[in-house]
Specification:
globular; 7-stranded mixed beta sheet; single chain; 5 helices; Rossmann fold; alpha/beta
């Protein structure tokens, strides 16, 4: 089974982010609509969708729940901690074979990478980050985030309706 982890699709943004980037809420919502379509396509293929949400905002405010633009199906899983290690361990105990795990969502080079690193994924599976299913934070540049995290410990990928393809950077 393949797994697609959507990181931090929060209903509400940090207040400081809304103030610094007034168009960010609209951008996030639009990207959420796209991710919703991707999740529908992937569910039909048998991919398990996991929503991995950080438990609280840094300033202590509750984040709410998953954005309205993304429909959560009964078979989807939610994790309210950084990473999905517990869910993956449960799947392993229930003898559910995991082929690939892909991380995407909000934001590339920030929470997506943090959730992937803390997931406890075995080396043989690898840390897969899907670039075109990841929104870049407005203050960042792709090249800077890739350089910061390096290309050795991550498998960078691109998604299409045909599947996920690894790319060499």
């Amino acid at each position: 089974m393949d797994i697609l982890v959507i990181v931090d699709p929060w209903k509400h943004l940090f207040q400081r982010d809304r103030l610094a980037f007034p168009d960010l809420q609209e951008e996030v919502k639009s990207f959420g609509v796209f991710l919703n379509t991707v999740c529908k396509i992937e569910r039909k293929k048998g991919t398990k969708i996991i929503f991995s949400l950080t438990s609280k905002y840094e300033d202590g405010d509750e984040f709410g729940d998953i954005m309205d633009e993304i429909e959560v199906f009964p078979e989807d899983l939610k994790s309210y901690t950084v990473g999905v290690a517990g869910i993956l361990e449960d799947m392993k105990k229930n003898k559910i074979e995991i082929n690939e795990i892909y991380f995407a969502g909000f934001h590339f080079g920030r929470c997506i990478h943090d959730h992937a690193k803390s997931s406890g994924i075995p080396e043989e599976i690898g840390l897969n980050i899907v670039i075109n299913l990841s929104l870049l934070y407005p203050a960042d540049l792709w090249v800077d985030r890739i350089k910061e995290h390096g290309v050795e410990q991550y498998n960078y990928c691109l998604w299409s309706q045909h599947g996920v393809e690894r790319i060499e950077l």
